[in-house]
Each structure stands twice: as structure tokens, then as C-alpha cells.
Design brief:
Elements: E1 4-8, E2 22-26, H1 34-38, H2 44-51, E3 56-59, H3 74-101, E4 105-110, H4 114-117, H5 123-146, E5 150-155, H6 163-170
Parallel strand pairs: 1-2, 1-3, 3-4, 4-5
Helix pairs in contact: 2-3, 3-5
Length: 171
């Protein structure tokens, strides 16, 4: 059986044509309400989870707020948590029941090398991507201990030349 893939977040499709029988891709990169949706505000994630039953879920959301420990504003700190950590948690919480009903699945959370090694000028991004890494471990251990048949992993890429990175390099 080919998997059904649901992708949440501003990410190019990870699955090449032919690897999945259907694609339920929600690419919210240009949507004005994307941060609210990804942060789990309102019933939208639960509404989508009740109709979409993916076997693969990719959580890829992120925004780099520059600033050292002394420069990072509370708003940036909070936004880093809402977008990177809370959205991952709420999305997994919404979609795991459907994966259990289907006998299992795979969840891939995109963290960052910055969540492992840190960097002095991206405090909010570092801590929030580190949070995604540790939350992924917790979710993986839970799913394994319950016998759900759901693999939960995180990926920690280095710099990828995106518009977000180009803007950071320029400043």
C-alpha cells in the first residue's frame, strides 16, 4: 500500500511523484493566516485531522528571529515557541489518533542543527528548534511504548539557502 502524505508548513514536497498514492498537501507558505494555523490557534488543525488520515506527517515550520540573549524581544521568544514547538505538538496531537486507526505511520519533524549546537545571534530559534528535537524524542517514546506503530523522528538540517536564510545573511 502506498502512503498518503500530509505536509504542514512552508516546505517543498519531500515525496517524489509516484511514492504516494495520494497527496494531501497543505502548503501554507503564502497564506496570511499561516502562523495562526501552524500555531494551532482555533479548530482548524482538528477539523483537518478529522477528514485527512495521513500515514506520513511532516511538520516543517520555522522562522528565524535574530538576536542574542540580550537582544531577543519577548514577542520573538513567544513567536518562536508558538510557531516551532506548539504547532508541532498540536499537529501531532491532532493526527496521531488517525494514524492509530490506520495501524501506524511516520511523523517527521524538521528541527535544525541550531537546535543542537546553538548560535549566539538566533536565541529564540535555537531554543525553539531544540524544543522540537526533545519533544520528538518524547513523542517517539510514547508512541513506541503504547505500540501504536508510529515512528516519530526529527531531522536537523544545516543552512539551506532559502529566502529566510538569505535575509538573515544580508543583515
Amino acid at each position: 500500500m502506498k502512503p498518503t502524505v500530509l505536509q504542514l508548513g512552508p516546505l517543498l514536497p519531500l515525496v517524489e511523484k509516484g511514492l504516494a498514492s495520494t497527496y494531501d498537501v497543505l502548503n501554507l507558505a503564502g497564506a496570511p493566516a499561516a502562523p495562526d494555523f501552524l500555531a494551532g490557534n482555533g479548530p482548524r488543525i482538528d477539523a483537518i485531522a478529522s477528514s485527512a488520515k495521513p500515514t506520513i506527517l511532516v511538520n516543517c515550520a520555522g522562522f528565524v528571529h535574530g538576536g542574542t540573549v540580550l537582544e531577543c524581544a519577548d514577542e520573538e521568544w513567544d513567536m518562536g515557541f508558538r510557531l516551532n514547538v506548539r504547532s508541532t505538538y498540536r499537529t501531532i496531537r491532532a493526527f496521531v489518533p488517525g494514524m492509530i486507526d490506520q495501524g501506524g505511520g511516520s511523523i517527521i519533524n524538521i528541527s535544525s542543527i541550531e537546535g543542537i549546537v546553538g548560535e549566539p545571534n538566533a536565541t529564540a530559534y535555537n531554543y525553539s528548534k531544540g524544543g522540537v528535537r526533545i519533544f520528538t524524542k518524547s513523542a517517539a517514546l510514547h508512541c513506541a511504548s503504547q505500540g501504536y506503530g508510529i515512528r516519530v523522528n526529527s531531522v536537523h538540517p544545516g543552512y539551506i539557502l532559502t529566502q529566510m536564510v538569505e535575509k538573515g545573511i544580508g543583515s
